[in-house]
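Good morning,

Attaching, inline, the backbone tokens for the sequence recovery test we're adding to the shared suite. The designed sequence is right after.
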């Protein structure tokens, strides 16, 4: 049997309708921005494997750190115990996180990081004797697939089977350029009820919505409204964190600071599943009490796994090298040149760039669905040409590993340009 036959015997893939989806590609090796399949066909991973891999596949520096940790202390429970990798990672992160972030809580993935933030928002009011039951989130948000995260997510077909079973969420429009006032008005209206515990958002870029971007000034204004009404703010930086926007965190562009932040994806350079939710001192204090019932009764078996922490420490060290910081600038500059090259193409209706993120929208007759025909045609074309890109409806975005070479990046641009000729 081939790998693909063996795969389809037992495996169920994410976001996949197995009856109609193309068969998966069996990848056997990765290096830098490149992946190879079982037939030695080469692919450029132009989306950093769902945004997790900035420093390249099979990165030796991270691998060595993981090996060293695995052969020193692979895991110890974090309830009642602690260890050096968690302590050092917390110190290093605190040094680069917004200054108001003072405590951090470990979990395993982006959804759990969000789940924890939502539970903390709700419980922190409960602990203070004022029960609030609603969360505010953006339209077309994506915060993950577990129940709380799914409730906050607004991409309807991801969640429609669960309507009526989700926590209450008030949805407000994204403050895209020219539409800011609608967003401010909707938030002002939402907070009036006094029942909103938190506002969760993807800062500056909505990834899964198709790299939809908005300005820091607009987000600052939304954060101000929340602060005035005692609504806790949660920056979901699971996608944007660790350099994607050109700075360590998207929140570094803001003058206001969120009360909580969610980190995952690039945290460990795409090696080991791990996530972190961070908090201000005030939030921690709302749980700090003689009364055991006021504690946060939440945990995961692998909380603060030392190997994951070691991978995160190595990743952070790579991010902070001059070479990696120069890569961020290099990719951003190339993206801006490419934007100029394609923005007047008759098939292109919009282009946008922030940091290493590039997106363009393709002209369509009707609105293109998330996994519709156009999307599938584009995806197949990119794969055929050795470039991994996953368009969202009619939106093609590029979010490469930071180590992608100029030649590889140019090839990605060329393939995207030729795709415009086939649609
Ligand atoms: C991917 C993502 C999540 C969910 O992370 P998982 O690790 O897939 O659970 C949450 N929020 C944002 C912004 C994401 O991009």
């Amino acid at each position: 049997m081939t790998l693909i036959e063996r795969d389809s015997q037992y495996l169920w893939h994410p976001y996949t309708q197995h009856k109609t989806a193309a068969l998966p590609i069996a990848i056997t090796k990765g290096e830098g921005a490149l992946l190879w399949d079982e037939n030695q066909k080469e692919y450029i991973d132009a989306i950093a494997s769902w945004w997790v891999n900035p420093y390249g596949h099979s990165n030796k520096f991270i691998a060595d750190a993981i090996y060293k940790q695995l052969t020193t202390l692979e895991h110890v429970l974090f309830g009642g115990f602690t260890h050096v990798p968690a302590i050092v990672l917390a110190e290093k992160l605190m040094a680069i996180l917004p200054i108001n972030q003072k405590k951090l809580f470990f979990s395993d993935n982006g959804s759990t990081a969000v789940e924890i933030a939502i539970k903390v928002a709700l419980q922190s009011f409960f602990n203070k004797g004022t029960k609030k039951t609603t969360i505010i989130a953006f339209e077309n948000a994506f915060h993950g697939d577990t129940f709380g995260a799914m409730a906050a997510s607004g991409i309807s077909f991801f969640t429609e089977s669960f309507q009526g079973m989700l926590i209450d969420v008030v949805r407000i429009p994204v403050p895209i350029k020219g539409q800011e006032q609608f967003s401010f008005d909707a938030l002002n209206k939402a907070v009036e009820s006094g029942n909103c515990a938190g506002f969760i958002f993807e800062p500056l870029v909505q990834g899964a919505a198709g790299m939809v971007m908005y300005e820091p000034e607009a987000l600052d204004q939304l954060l101000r409204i929340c602060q005035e009404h005692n609504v806790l703010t949660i920056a979901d930086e699971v996608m944007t964190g660790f350099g994607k926007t050109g700075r360590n965190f998207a929140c570094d562009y803001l003058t206001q600071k969120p009360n909580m932040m969610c980190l995952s994806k690039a945290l460990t350079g795409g090696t080991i599943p791990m996530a972190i939710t961070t908090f201000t001192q005030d939030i921690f204090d709302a749980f700090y009490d003689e009364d055991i019932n006021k504690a946060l009764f939440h945990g995961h078996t692998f909380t603060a796994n030392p190997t994951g922490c070691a991978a995160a420490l190595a990743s952070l060290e790579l991010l902070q090298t001059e070479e990696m910081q120069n890569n961020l600038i290099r990719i951003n500059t190339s993206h801006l040149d490419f934007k100029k090259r394609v923005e007047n193409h008759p098939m292109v209706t919009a282009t946008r760039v922030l940091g290493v993120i590039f997106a363009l929208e393709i002209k369509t007759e009707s609105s293109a669905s998330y996994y519709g025909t156009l999307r599938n045609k584009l995806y197949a074309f990119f794969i055929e040409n050795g470039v991994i890109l996953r368009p969202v409806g009619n939106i093609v975005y590029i979010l490469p590993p930071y180590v992608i070479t100029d030649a590889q990046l140019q090839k990605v641009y060329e393939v995207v340009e030729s795709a415009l000729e086939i649609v």
